[in-house]
Each structure stands twice: as structure tokens, then as C-alpha cells.
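Worked example 2:
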Amino acid sequence: MSVNYSSRKLLQVHITPWRVAIVAGLLGAWFVALGMRAAYLQGLNTDFLQGKGDAVSSRKLAIPANRGMVLDRFGQPLAISTPVETLWARPSDTQSLASQQIVRLAAILGMPTNALAKKLNSPHKGVIAINRNLSPEQAVKIAALGLPGLKLQREFRRFYPAAEVAAHVVGFTNVDDVGQEGVELAYHDWLTGKAGSRHVLRDRRGHIVQDLSPARGAKMGGNLGLSLDLKLQYLAHRELSAAVDKHKAKGGGIVVLDAKTGEILALSNLPVVNPNNRKNYKPGLMRNRAVTDTFEPGSTIKPFTVAAVLERGLVRPDSMIYLPNDYAVGRKHITDVHYHPQLTVTEVLQKSSNIGVVKMAMQLKPEEFWDTLRRAGFGEKPGSGFPGEVGGRLRDPSTWKPVEQATHAYGHGLSVSLLQLARAYMAFANDGVVMPLTFLKREPQELDGERVLSVHVARQVREMMETVTHEGGTATLAQVPGYRVAGKTGTAYKLIGGRYSTDSYISSFVGLAPASDPRLIIAVMIDEPREKGHYGGQVAGPVFAQVMAASLRQLGVSPDAPEEPATRMTQPQLGVKPGEA
């Protein structure tokens, strides 16, 4: 009894009223705080809680849009988008996969097991792409495995049916279907569709269990019709490739223009890379050099020099030019390999005499010569709208020294792009009018061009350029059986490191046919030919002839020359040095 009494007494001592009040107060305050917190979260901050819940279970899924096709002028595909499956993984879920499961997945994907295991066990907290180019067969096999943490998503991959043949014009897109080069870049906004969306509810494994709202469908991008003729494009690329291989050249370019409309029917450059296989991709290989790079045009500028003096009535086509062995302008000595005591203006162009064109050019004021070159489009962008287009170099005439005016007469001291040079020759093809350039197909309609030469002068120079392809001219290998051809060769020392090389050349030819009523203009440039000749008429002329002949037949252009073509020389004219041809 004494023990029990003592225990009760002890309890009475320790359990006092003030202690009970403190405990009750603390508990009451705790419940009040919980109630206030619940009221705040459920009443005043509902959106926050809803957002947290949706982040786990609700998703807005993007429905990819199909990028528009790029087509040639006849509807042949140059760039199309094909559906592919992309495999995504959430490493936080795939880290639990068994080794046998990883081995089976790696076999389907065709990738090393170790590399796949490294990705699936990545510390990355989000999702990562495992493969973005799965075939439908691969996608079916992966789905059958039912592995957690993996997701298949439909995307579109860009495919280029013409491969490298039209690569520099069409360009390409990156892995996210964004245009990087060519018309894929220039017209990206038009080609790109508008993605759709789907609001869904998913379980903790990522499976869709409910659509929360009607899906919004994707809008396909617009198709783009180019001015290119795929048949002519294949032809131009083939002949250019053959010439580069034959002459062991560093590269080359070719442009085929419709003289009547300004449409670019074909354009090719070398070197190039297949946009469908970019394992060995280098940015320089996809640069459209015919549009973005410049070179000194050499003697292909001489028709414009002759046009400048003809326009001002200083000479006539049959005017006689007396030529010395050596012609000095300041400290610059200008010579011709073959001495001709006298030549007519027409013969100066036919035989590409440096002294002849310099003597004519020096009769002009610098501003007058510059004005003719400028009106022809030199020193300005040709206006094709192509990304990276350049305008070349044509300095202000107020800065010219006499020697610069002289060298400009035969194409040194200024620079042009191949597209710019082809455009300028439209002045001779269209009786003095230059049409605006375009890479897009134009509907038949009346187009307003820009007059840069008088009708009379343009026709005179065109007739003079016909003699360049006749016997005694510098481009007999540019003849096209059945058609009259007008054109001009160019062979220029190449500028390397600010100095003219003594053994590296730019060989070129620009011509038009049929000369009676020109339909096509073709400009060819071969960069650093190393074997089997280096003169423009010898290297670039045959490429022009092959492409022009086949193109005229393809377009159904009627012949305008006698049935028996002029005698074609089997060997190039000897003794013609750079700057003369």
C-alpha cells in the first residue's frame, strides 16, 4: 500500500495544470497552422497545386508537321520529308533494365551494347534521344519489347532524291528540320509547317490514359517549285564532273540561264557532298561557289570593254586598231603572244588581243568605262535571293590609276561570281536588256528587265562574239553543230595570297545560243586545271558545247546554222597566254 500511495503522489506532483495548458496550447496552435495552410493551398493557391499535378500526369504533346517539298520546274522532287520513328529514353527509368534487355535492344538498333548501356544509364534527369532515324521495322520490334522508360515518337526526315547533283541549290536541313543551306534556308519559313498539339493525361509510366481536349492537327508546309530543270541539272553536273576529272582540277562551276526569263535552269559546283550522307560533311563542300565566291573574270570581260567604246561612237566593228609589239601604261607592259600589226575591232575580240582592248579602253574616261561595267551588274549583287550572294569587286572610278583602267579592260583588278557573269551576258542575248534572276519557276508573263546597252550595240557585240567560235578564234571547241554560238573565253592567273600565281589558272567560257535569237546562256569555270591544258577555250569550251547541245535539243529549240558546221579545230590555238583567252 505504501508503494502505490507514493506513485500516486509522484504523479500528482509532476502533472500540474500549467504543463497541461502549455501542451494543449501547442497542439491547438499546430492544428490552427495546419488549417491555415490547407486553406491557403486549396483555396488561394489552387493553380500551383494543379500545375504540379499536371507536370506529373498532364502533357501537351506536339504533333510534328510535314515540311513542304522542293520540286523542279516539272514537279520532280528535289527534297521530300519521309516519316521516321525517334527512340527517346528516360534514364531515370531505364537504369533498371536488365543486361539481356539492353543486348536485345542494341541488336535491333544495330549499335554497340556498351554505347547503348552508357546512354540508358546516363545521369541525365530528362529524356535523351537514342536514335532519330528508325525504320518502321525497327520501331515495331522495339515496341514489342515493352521496355520501361522508352518512347517512340513519329518525326520526319529530309531526303534528297537528286543527292549531290542539286545539292548546292537545294541545300539541306539539320536534325531538327531547320534549313541550313540553299533554298532550304532561303525559304525556310515557307517550307516549314505548323506543328499540331494533343493535350493528354498519362500514368506514372508515361502511358496515355485520356485525351483532355480535342487534338489540333498539324499544318503541312508549302511546296516550293524551283526554276531548275532536273534533266539539265544532271547533264550539267555530269559534264562538269568529267571536265574536273579530266583536267585534275581543284573544282569548277556551271550556270545555265534562260535568257528570256532570267530563270536558273541548272547550277552545279564541285566539290560537293551528298546531303543524304553527311558523315564526311565539311561546311565548305556545301558552299554554292557559283553564287558566294568570286574570281577575276579575265578575257570574258572584253565584250563589255568593246561595248563601252562602241556605245560612245569611238570605234566601229570594222575599225582598224594598230598594235605595237609592246604597249606600256605607266610601268605596266602589255603584250600579245602573237604579233598582229593591225586588227579590226571584231578581230581584237576574236583573237582576244590584250593590247587591242587596252588601246580602246584608254580612249574612255574612267567614269565612262565604270558606268558600262556597273550597268551590266558588276560590283552589285545579282539579285537571285540566294543566301550568301556576293556582288564582287568593282572599285570607284575616282580611285583608278591608268594602269587599273588598262587591266580592267581584260578582266584583271575586278572580281565577279559565276552567276553574276552569266547574268551580265543577258545584255548581249536580249538586245541590251538584263532580266531579273530567279531560282523559282516563273509563270509565262511579260517581265520587265533592265536596259543596260542599246539594241544596236548589243547586237553588234553578239555578232562579233560569234567569230570567237569560228576558225581563227579562241573557242572553236565551243561550237555546237546546227547552231550559231556567240561567246568569249577567259584564262586568268589565279590570285593566291594577294599575288598572281604563275602556274594556277581560272579557265572559263561564257556563251549563248542560238546566236540569231538566244535562248540559253551557259557560263563554265574550271578552277586550277592541272593536266591536258588550261586555256579557257580548251578546258571550259567543250563543257559548254556538250551542255548547250543537249539542252537545246531537250528544249526543242530550232537550229539556226547551216547543216555543215564550221571546221572544228582538233587542237587549241597555240601561243595564247592568260589574259588573252
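The CA atoms of residues 27 and 393 lie 87 Å apart. DSSP finds 22 helices and 21 strands in the chain.
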